[in-house]
Amino acid sequence: MRQIHFPVLLANVADARARAFVVLFACDAITRSILITLVPLQAYALFGAARSVSIVYFSVAIVGLVTSLALPILLRHIPRRWAMTIGAACQILSGLLFMLGTPASLVAGLAFQTLATAILEVVINLYMMDHIPRRSLNVFEPRRLLFTGTAFAIGPWLGIYLHREIAEGLTYGVAILASLTLLVFFWILRLTDDPGLQAAKSVPLSPLRAIPRFAAQPRLVLAWILALGRNGFWVTFFIYAPIYVTHAGYPPQIGGALVSLGLTPMLLVRIWGRIGRAIGLRNLLCAGYGLTGLSCIAAAAASLSDQPLLGIVLLWFAAACGTIIDGAGNVPFLRAVHHYERPAMTSVFMTFRHVGALAIPGILALVLWVLPLPYVFIFSGMITLVMAVLSRLLPRRL
How far apart are CA 291 and CA 233, in angstroms? Predict the structure, then answer.
């Protein structure tokens, strides 16, 4: 009999896979972005000092780091789909705990939120690397960042607005709904055997066992350090920029607007990607890190000179320059890792987020012990300038 072909449908399989992962990343981004400004401000209101907020974030970051290291062991005993379900359930539980509005519930909510981020980030990335061809990553990564960037451009302001102007628990309700959407969409994909998510093909090794192999590859180490520096800047900005705005006497909505406006240029991520391809990713990262670091230091100087409004504007510019760095995403790692080592190396690489979430608040708690709030931005700016120098070590062909 004559065989029947469906060229259009078959041609769209790869694109369907990409769309599936974009939806998962976007739902996760909505959940995190809508809380990213509100939770630090709630912590500041409950604990009364930026130093105390640093200690809280430092403490809960330990949960994320331990989870990241233990996750490969968990994935050996349960299927990835159940790990995904546990991660989404932790996100939902964190939203419910935040609703209670007490110091203890906030700390517990942060702990579950950190646990969820550690699980979902690794599991979704492993699924992605199983099903998105390596040659397609340069196209997929800007698309992913475009959708997640939109969420982060709107979410920080929207979270504050819904909480203060509409209803106090509404922001947490939206975060819970986004997490439920992620979970339901994931299971619908599995139940209908959607090509976007087939059965997992790989399980990561323990990061502790993979660290020596990771450390033996200079390009992977450099990619990890650069990702750590990028994450360190954003940790500082997300936690301390809204607190700085409130400390300067402005309403919390201004803090939310600062974070949202600072992330709005992330919508230009495809343009940053094109510029990176034109001038080289190395040059793009050098410029992004350098401008971000200088702007952070200038913002701190303005604040110390009793010009808080100028400090806010410069912090916005620093964040806008930080989106240039995000235009590269994790491409330095994705291009450097061998395909047969992806699961093991990914488990190690993704620790940059948890190490940053642990180290940055811990160090800044010590800074705030002896120095006023603007010095956290001086510290962040200096670290980011170091990243600009290290970016020169990337291969020219990247």
Answer: 12
- Please enumerate in sequence order all residues whose Cβ is within 8 A of that of 166, keeping only pairs 6 or more positions apart, or say none: none
Separation CA 49–CA 373 (nearest Å): 10
Helix-, strand-, coil-residue percentages of the chain, each rounded to 5: 85, 0, 15
Are the CB atoms for 336 and 217 separated by under 8 Å?
A: yes
The answer to whether 120 and 28 are in contact (CB under 8 A) is yes
CA-to-CA distance for 350 and 70, rounded, in angstroms?
13
Q: How far apart are CA 203 and CA 344, in angstroms?
A: 8
Cβ-contact 298, 380 below 8 angstroms? no
- In the structure, what pLDDT confidence band is assigned to residue 381 with cuts at 50, 70 and 90? very high
281: domain CATH number is: 1.20.1250.20
**The pTM is what?**
0.77
Round to whole Å and give the CA distance between 171 and 253: 14
117: in domain: yes
Q: Which residues are CB-contacts of 188 (< 8 A; sequence separation ≥ 6)?
A: 194
- Return the pLDDT at 207: 61
Task: Please provide the average confidence, as pLDDT, over all residues in the chain.
Answer: 82
Q: Which domain holds residue 204?
A: 15-393
Distance CA 223, CA 387 (A): 11
- Least Cα distance to 139 among 7, 18, 223 occurs for 18
Report the alpha-carbon distance of residue 341 to residue 35 in Å, rounded.
34
Residue with tokens 């010009």: 307
Amino acid identity at 99: M
CA distance 17 to 189: 10
Is there a domain that residue 3 lies in? Answer: no
Please state the domain count of the chain: 1
Quick: pLDDT tens for 250-291: 888 888 889 888 888 877 777 777 787 778 888 889 999 999
Give the span between the Cα atoms of 17 and 193, in whole angstroms.
12
Length of the chain, please?
A: 398
Residue 236 maps to a domain = yes
246 and 255 in contact (C-beta within 8 Å)?
Answer: yes
1 located within any domain: no
Distances (CA, A) of 12 to 6, 178, 194, 208: 10, 27, 12, 39
Which percentage of the chain shows pLDDT scores above 70? Answer: 86
Residue 138 has pLDDT above 70, yes or no: no
Helix 38-47 with 103-131: angle, nearest 10 deg: 160
